[in-house]
Amino acid sequence: MNDDQRAIRRKLRILNCAAEIGSVVKTCRYFGIGRASFYRW
Fold first, then answer.
1. Contact 15, 41 (CB under 8 A)
2. What does the CA dihedral 19, 25, 31, 36 come to, rounded to 10 degrees?
């Protein structure tokens, strides 16, 4: 698995987590990312 694939898997995991939880704010805090990054994805 190369770096691009690893980054894509991480982003998908974060997006799926947000969908399950139903809260972007909580998901971003948990993973330590900014909401702007989340919405850009």
1. yes
2. 100
Using one digit for the tens of pLDDT, what is the confidence trace for 25-35? 999 999 999 99
CA distance 2 to 19: 26
**Cβ of 8: how many Cβ atoms within 10 Å?**
12
Q: For residue 27, with 0-12 CB atoms within 10 Å meaning exposed, 13-18 middle and 19 or more buried, which class applies?
A: buried
Could you tell me the pTM of the whole model? 0.84
**pLDDT band at 1, cuts 50/70/90?**
confident
